Amino acid sequence: MQKPSPLPKVPIMRGGLVLSLIMALTSQGCSKKQPSKQEVGHPTPIPVLSRKNYDTSKLFSGIIIKSSVEGSPSQETAMEAVANSNSYKMDINLHVQWPKAATTTGELQAATPDIVGLLPSLDTLLTNAVPSPDFALLLNHKEKSLRNNLGQLQHLPYRDSLFDCQTILDLKNPLTSRRALFVQAIMNVNTDGSDGDRNLTIDHLSPTFQPQTNYRWGKKTDRPNPCLRESLSQLALTEAELGNGTMTAVGKTSLEARSTAAKATIAELKRWSFLVGTADPFIVLPSFMAGKTSTQPGIGDYAVVIAKGTLYPAILGDLGPNSKIGEASLRICREIESQSGADRRPVSSPEVVYLVFPGTAEKPFTSPDYAHWSERCHALWKEFGGSDTASWHEWTSLEQPWPTPTPLSTPSPADSTPSSTTPSSTTPSNTTPSNTTPSNTTPSTGTNPAPIPSTSSLPSSTPIL
């Protein structure tokens, strides 16, 4: 059998020339199409790539890569060049064109087409509107994060995560003086939170899961938090590792910090109940945006989320990283997109409106009352000038009743009298063995899987950074 003609040898190229190399290989016989016959003694010529910039491809995060190779002669020998760090190096310059904040009706409507119908007085609200200072601060935090992570390209955010905010505006209805923070952004998923008093399912698959939220209230029962056992186990492992005496000073410092954090978490889990991302409707703002001044939102303030024409009553329940914005509990996310999860956000374009009403939190904080939350959000929406005909989503509780303890049967006198034919070592069938734990001593863990706490809130089909 005649052997197929060998592929032409192509010089190995690096960096930005990869895509051009692939295209060259494809054109020279990498496809299934048979190459045309060549004259004997005239092999297929080697492709020549000119020296210039090439648009190679996109990184996983959507960053466009343009690269080139620059070579120049030196007076060094190979022995000298291999020891010179400047003889073989790469310079990386990341160029970002930061967006401006939307301030006009047309710009807001471009992202959220139904906003004008939902807020008939939007033109009045936007009179002399200027971006909130928080918008510039958000971009500053993003740029700082890019600088810190530039050395590790895999840690750079996705394009839609970087440009996650259309606007941040401090608005006020001149007729009622009702103020609101108007944020237009994407929607990331928050699964944080746990509660030992309520029997709720916890989704702890997110690598950034935390058992606590900033909104919390005192525990009412002696049922342990479902995340407590895992936290105690992690503390025990850390303490055991600290007792090993063979670690470096840096490793010891890291473990001591982890131990201190674990002890603080355990103390909080024993004292407080928290919102639960899978069950409670709440939103998250960057930490720098809350509680610094009287005009800024605070934990517990009421909020209205507008997504795909529907209004969702909520509260500001947690704070997140300073370089990201646009985040809601998994309960809200799954109402908007049923497939939402720790690695899948419901909305990846900055079209969701988060309307937060500063100074409306009711203290002391208590266990969620969805009917009351909805009533307050409806009233604040009307004060702000919202439409009376807007479509609202009303929340129902997902809390399940705790399992009823199974009573232990009482042996009858006949059962307590040994039979002459029954060996004394036989256990009566209605007696509970000593190694059986009654169902009322430990809360059911079937609906509260143990979380995987993290030391540390997505395009819909790709990982979220």
Structure in words:
The chain has helices at 18-30, 78-81, 105-111, 115-118, 122-125, 133-149, 159-162, 228-242, 249-271, 330-336, 370-384, 413-416, and strands at 54-58, 64-67, 165-172, 179-190, 216-218, 272-274, 282-286, 302-307, 310-320, 327-329, 347-356, 391-392. A hairpin with a 2-residue loop joins strand 8 (302-307) and strand 9 (310-320). Mean pLDDT is 81; it is low at 1-44, 47-55 and 417-465. It contains 12 helices and 12 strands. Helix 8 packs antiparallel against helix 9. The chain has 465 residues and is an alpha+beta fold. Strands 4-10-7-9-8-11 form a 6-stranded mixed beta barrel. It has 2 domains: 6-28 and 47-91, no CATH class; 97-402 and 444-465, no CATH class.
